[in-house]
Amino acid sequence: MAYEQPIRDRRKHKRYFARDGTYAFLRPPANKIGQIIDISVAGLAFCYFSTNGPSRDANSLDLLADDGICLEGIPYTTINDFILPTEQPFSQITMRRRCIKFGILTEQHLENLKNIINKYGQEQESVSAV
């Protein structure tokens, strides 16, 4: 008989759900903006609309919030970019999820990032067995 074991999160940094009103903007040549899903001091995931597959990478990204907070020029690497399931499978417009890892951050970037997480982040519940 197989026993289910809890799935362990291997992330080094705590991940927080982002409240509505927080966005990631990929700078040119990508020019994509999307709602942040979750965030940590090591990276984030966000959703964006696409009409022609995954967007190109940019040199950096900006974090924006409804109340005017803006954190500019964050270096990053794309870890994953995939289509999210939809009820309209033949639509020309797709919703994608991009998962990124931050590059080397300056002390100022790190401090501002922590402030954004404290203001807009909500703790996630523990992951349990599926």
Number of strands: 8
CATH arch. level architecture: Beta Barrel
Number of domains: 1
Which series of helices and strands comes N to C? EEEEEEEHE
Q: How would you describe the shape? A: globular
Treating each run of at least 4 consecutive H or I residues as one helix, how many helices? 1
Proportion of residues in helical segments: 10-25%
The span between the termini is 17 Å
Please, what is the average pLDDT? 85
Give a written overview of the molecule.
With 130 residues, the protein is mostly beta strands. It has one domain: predicted glycosyltransferase like domains (Thrombin, subunit H), CATH 2.40.10. Helices cover 11% and strands 43% of the residues. It contains 1 helix and 8 strands; from the N terminus they run E-E-E-E-E-E-E-H-E. The protein has one helix spanning 107-120, and strands at residues 16-18, 22-26, 32-39, 43-50, 60-65, 70-83, 94-102, 121-123. It has a 6-stranded antiparallel beta barrel with strand order 2-3-4-7-6-5. It is globular and about 45 Å long.
